[in-house]
Structure formats: C-alpha cells, structure tokens
Amino acid sequence: xxxxxxxxxxxxxxxxxxxxxxxxxxxxxxxxxxxxxxxxxxxxxxxxxxxxxxxxxxxxxxxxxxxxxxxxxxxxxxxxxxxxxxxxxxxxxxxxxxxxxxxxxxxxxxxxxxxxxxxxxxxxxxxxxxxxxxxxxxxxxxxxxxxxxxxxxxxxxxxxxxxxxxxxxxxxxxxxxxxxxxxxxxxxxxxxxxxxxxxxxxxxxxxxxxxxxxxxxxxxxxxxxxxxxxxxxxxxxxxxxxxxxxxxxxxxxxxxxxxxxxxxxxxxxxxxxxxxxxxxxxxxxxxxxxxx
Length: 292
Fold this sequence. Notes:
With 292 residues, the chain is of the alpha/beta class. It folds into 2 domains: 96 residues, Elongation Factor Tu (Ef-tu), domain 3, CATH 2.40.30; 135 residues, 3-Layer(aba) Sandwich (Rossmann fold), CATH 3.40.50. It has 8 helices and 17 strands. A 7-stranded mixed sheet has the order 12-11-8-7-13-14-17, with helices on both faces. A 6-stranded antiparallel β-barrel has the order 1-2-5-4-3-6. The longest helix has 14 residues. The protein is globular, with a radius of gyration of 18 Å.
C-alpha cells in the first residue's frame, strides 16, 4: 500500500480569494482543512477546474495554514483548463483530491531551494516549513515573466552573493529566510541570467566545509532541472527534483505520467503522481551528470 494513500482526501473547497498577477499568473486560496493539515512541501492537489472539463488538473501547493484550514495554489494560464479556472469566482467551490505524491525531505543543514516559473510554489512551501531553522535555507527563484509578487530589496545579507543582486520575495524576508531572484528579463535588483547561474556563483564562493553541508532542492521546467542536477554533480551534492507532468487520474491508476528513472536494477518507469513528484535528481537526469 502506498503510505500516502492514508492521507488522501476528497474535499469540496470554497474559493476564498483569487488574485491576478502579471504574466497571466493567479494565486488561488481555497478552504480545504483536511488537505491543509496533511500537506507537505512537494505535494500537489488534483482539482476540477470547471464542470465543462471532466479531467482534473494537477497544481502544486504554494502555502497552507493548517489552523485556518486554507491552501494556496499558484498557476499560469497556458491552456483550456487554466483559462476556465481563471474565470472561477470567490464563493464558488472546486473539487479537490489531495495532498498527492512524495514530498521533499531535508537531510543536510544547508538546503538550497531553486524554483523556476510555476515551479516556485514547492520551494516557497518548503521554505515555510523550514522557518526558524538555523542556518536558514537559501531560496533562489527564477522567472522570465514578472514575478507573482512584488519584489523588494532584501534586508538580509547573503555571503557570496553579487552586491547588485538585492531583489527578494518579501514574505521570506519577513520570515528571516534569505532569497534572491534571477531572470533573463531585465528587472531592478534581479540577477541577469538563469537561476542555476546564480546558484553556481553562490556555491563557488563557499569554503569546502560549508559547501559540504548543502543539499539542492528544485522544481521547474525540465531543462532547468537538468541544469540543477549538473550543478549538484559538479559540487558533489545531493539533489532532489520535483517533476511537472500532464496527468489524467493523478492517483497512480492510469500510468499516464510515467517517466524513466534509473534504479539499482537498471532503467524503470515510475509514475510522477505517486512515485514522485519528488525524485533523486541523478536518477531522473543521468545525462546531466557529466555536464557540470
């Protein structure tokens, strides 16, 4: 039996807020107390976006409040499903299944969290769970469209970070968790380049003992994840990646989201929805190991 099936819930979740951001990005807050209490960073929900579209859509969890009973989701409009979802109004109800999947685990004292585009939510959720840890995690976020929040110069210094790179996610600053932003689109205080380039700059500035305490966690498009795995290989660091795939059932029955994973017995097909979405990066992107 999959150990996560015991904490899988079906909830009819009222929409509490539905906030639009540039780049046709939306943050959706839903009242889903059972999911909010059980969810862990890296997991997702499978939701019915509209009665006109029977197939559910998987969306990663951005934040949860177990006490207030809400969850937040970030999505970008890219197809029919998300076009229908953006039309849903506060007070309407969405059907959710969740929380689904294997979450991130933290095994070293200095987590480096890398999020790209709509892959940012699991990293923000993981940072929230690590709030108060010392040393705190470092969160690096990348986007080629405006960020789904208002960046501001950080009050938290980061050793080894380029002095001109000051833009951060304000919520993380409030939590005393350092963050920096990267983009190939010029933005004030934002690193010009890929988020993995910024991570490399930071890792190169660490002494060997400090760098040996780092573990990489990442979510984003496949080319970015491959680059993260190459970076981990270059510095001989563990790396976990969360994959984003199209799904039909979302609970492991249809095998429509399988990916090839390297195992000790050789290549094998694994379902992203329940065997993941979090995997050992080296086992999913072995071709990247020699590219660091």
